[in-house]
Amino acid sequence: MSSTAIAAHAEETSLGQPHLKVGFWTFLGSECLFFGSLIASYMAYRGKSIVPPFPHHGPPHGIGILNIPVTSVSTFVLLTSSLAMVLALAACQRGERKKTSFWLCMTALFGLIFLGFQAYEFTEFYHNGLSLQRNLFGCTFFVLTGFHGTHVSVGVLWLLSLFVINQREGIPPEKALNVEVAGLYWHFVDIVWIVIFTLVYLIPD
Amino acid sequence: MDHATPHGEQREHPVPATYLKVAAILTVITAVEVTLYYIPAMRGVLVPLLLLFSAAKFGIVVGWYMHLRFDPILYTRLFLGPLGIAAVITIVLMLLFGHFIQHTQT
After folding, report:
1. Residue range A63-115, pLDDT digits in tens
2. Among A64, A80, A157, B78, which residue has the least CB neighbours within 10 Å?
3. Record: contact B90-A184, CB cut-off 8 A
4. Taking CB atoms and an 8 Å cutoff, what residues of chain A touch B26?
5. What is the mean pLDDT of chain A?
6. Helix intervals (H) in A94-175
7. What would the pLDDT profile of A151-181 be if each residue is shown by its tens digit?
8. What average pLDDT does this structure show over A193-197?
9. What is the pLDDT of residue A204?
10. Which of B61, B92, B100 to mutate to test the interface with A (most CBs of A within 10 A)?
11. Of residues A137 and A58, which shows the higher confidence score?
């Protein structure tokens, strides 16, 4: 369904917009506060760990534990998944069932690759002595990125559900709002990672 | 065709070619960010530049991929209100924990 068709349909509601979309943007607002509190905790305790491992290379701590090249690749993968998501929505709005399935599948696949990178990173960190209980960095880092990873996992399950529904009965353009809302969730996960990548990985202590 | 609603104008969403251009811009910005991280001479301006690039990427994804540039203003308000509160909480908490304060040796 085109955005024009959505708007036409939405005029039936009291807000003049689809309730699903209004409700979902409200939910995303609450998610901003949720991730905001986790990011605030990370930033407040930033650089205050007393025992190693420390996040960044350079003085006063020496060797850092963060692997910027690997995380840069996983960031690129997540950004690419957002492109696949908008292409899935565009295909669904045009009624192109096969393309919708393909791009939904690609988005979920990129999400799974991102989760694979995160699993690798967490395992490496654990073997290098970083755990939830080790220091303030470990505690705030694992909670923040762990909750983000959980959101990505939920997003992958949602996308795969849409993929199965589209394969079985198809998602007609009139119901493209269901794909659009899943897309909003996916892009939100992407923008949270944009913030985490800069604040946690790139900005030194 | 655009539609006026009680909460602003609904404009047509972008076409796939625009999404590809947006993806290219996001990739270039990310590449520049990572490159800056590895240039020691940029240390002095690294933090403001990274924050600027991150904000740009955030704005591009929200504006184009999430369609806030094209959808009624209602959605922007629903999103930016809590986002602003989250940003203020982060900055205040950092202030309370002694960040942004220059420590002097006595």
Report:
1. 789 999 999 999 999 999 999 999 999 999 999 999 999 999 999 999 999 99
2. A157
3. no
4. 79
5. 92
6. 97-127, 136-168
7. 999 999 999 999 999 999 999 999 999 999 9
8. 98
9. 87
10. B61
11. A137
**Helix pair A68-93, A97-127: axis angle to 10 deg:** 160
3-state SS, residue A81: helix
Distance between A192 CA and the closest CA of chain B, angstroms: 9
Is A103 at the interface with chain B, CB within 8 A? no
- The Cβ of residue B53 has, within 10 Å, a number of other Cβ atoms equal to 18
Region B94-106: mean pLDDT is: 74
A73 touches chain B (CB under 8 A): no
List CB contacts (< 8 A) between A187 and chain B: 61-62, 65-66
Q: Which residue of B has its CA nearest to A80?
A: B23
CB-based contacts of A171: which residues, under 8 Å, 6+ apart?
A92, A97, A100, A162, A165, A178, A179
Instruction: Retrieve residue A118's tokens.
Output: 């995160």
Residues 6+ apart with CB under 8 A from A172: A95
The span from the CA of A62 to the CA of A53, in Å, is 10
Distances (CA, A) of A150 to A25, A57, A84, A144, B58: 20, 28, 20, 10, 21
| pLDDT tens, position by position, B66-86 | 999 999 999 999 999 999 999
Classified as helix, coil or strand, B104 is: coil
DSSP conformational letter for A17: S
In this complex, the residue of B20, B34, B62 whose CB is nearest that of residue A68 is B34
* DSSP E strand boundaries for chain B: 3-5, 8-10
